[in-house]
């Protein structure tokens, strides 16, 4: 859970302690300035390629435990995948996306929770981004990392095999915000492989800058239902998950 009750005052204090690193003036991740890069690309009529998170197997990490044949991966911009790509199609909801060949269900569960909080969602996912006349293959997202908000720049080259996205993909093949958000988070983590296994609490904190409470359901507190009801009334974000290897038969 994140951003509940009195925790909101903590969140506000963190964001207003100083200007740099706030939502209004986020830190430029790896010193990449979104506006400067966009202006450069538009003036020169080129599409952005991110040398800091290159569209090749280094950004996936060859050590990733997967059935993927990385030699078959081709990095494609959305226009090479579908004729008319869009950033968002008919709004954003938790039903927009599905998991790919990566163990980051914890991240997707957190995105699902994020879709219920449109104001926070807009802080993480700037909604003005489109595939229009201002498009130059450049996108950006914001995360809370180590006490500051950071603005993370990416190019829109996405890993595919046979023309299909291999990681997060939208249920509408023309919609790309889920895959681009995942790529930005992978960049912050270090690689796609570094997203393999985690907890919803990690991503919820990175989405909000708030604090979280984690509860173990194999030894739940006696007032678990009341805790959840309080969280719901305070419009907290909640998520749940299972530990690796845990099944119904062995839990």
Automatic annotation (TrEMBL):
Active site residues according to the UniProt entry: 105
Transmembrane portions of the chain: none
One annotated GO biological process: proteolysis
Residues annotated as domain Calpain catalytic: 47-228
Keywords: Hydrolase, Protease, Thiol protease
CDD domains: CysPc
GO molecular function, one term: calcium-dependent cysteine-type endopeptidase activity
One of the record's GO cellular component terms: cytoplasm
Family note: Belongs to the peptidase C2 family.
Official protein name in the record: Calpain catalytic domain-containing protein
Source organism of this protein record: Knipowitschia caucasica
